[in-house]
Specification:
CATH class: Mainly Beta
Helix content: under 10%
Radius of gyration: 14 Å
Number of strands: 11
Distance between the termini: 13 Å
Number of domains: 1
Oligomer: single chain
Bound molecules: zinc ion
């Protein structure tokens, strides 16, 4: 993966478009219940970038909830089509995650680990080379 790249994407209806000039700080699959509810899928594919690298056009709707850690998690989504796009965590205000399913060309995506592997659905395949964390790793993720 290049050291810096442009990650661009949009929601399903195209009302919101975004781009980030950054190399992802961290890439992961998250199997937690919140991510499943939020995405409507078996797990979430997430790429974290510096929050100031991301800009978007169009109006996102937000929803904030509490994680088990007590942190406030804010989800950004399109009010017209419902696509989930980004999310922030109050404990790590300098970064934002992009939902990889909304990225235009995500061939570079390579999850470094599975977070909340303990709540993974039995049918979800796991890449043998990818590290599992039963819950959320507490140390800040580094490459
Ligand atoms: Zn939309
Ligand atoms: Zn999650």
């Amino acid at each position: 993966m290049p050291t810096e790249q442009v990650i661009s994407g949009s929601c399903l209806c195209g009302a919101i478009r975004y781009s980030a000039s950054a190399s992802p700080l961290f890439q992961a699959h998250c199997h937690c219940q919140d991510c499943r509810k939020n995405t409507g899928s078996a797990f979430a594919a997430l790429a974290f970038v510096p929050i100031n690298s991301l800009s978007w056009q169009g109006q996102t709707q937000t929803f904030t909830h509490r994680a088990d850690s007590g942190a406030a998690m804010t989800k950004h989504f399109c009010a017209s089509c419902g696509s989930q796009l980004f999310g922030t965590n109050s404990a790590k205000p300098d970064r934002i995650h992009i939902k990889v399913g909304s990225v235009e060309d995500a061939q570079w995506f390579e999850p470094q680990c599975n977070v909340w592997a303990s709540s993974r659905l039995p049918s979800t395949p796991i890449n043998a080379g990818v590290k599992d964390f039963a819950q959320m790793p507490t140390t800040s993720a580094k490459k």
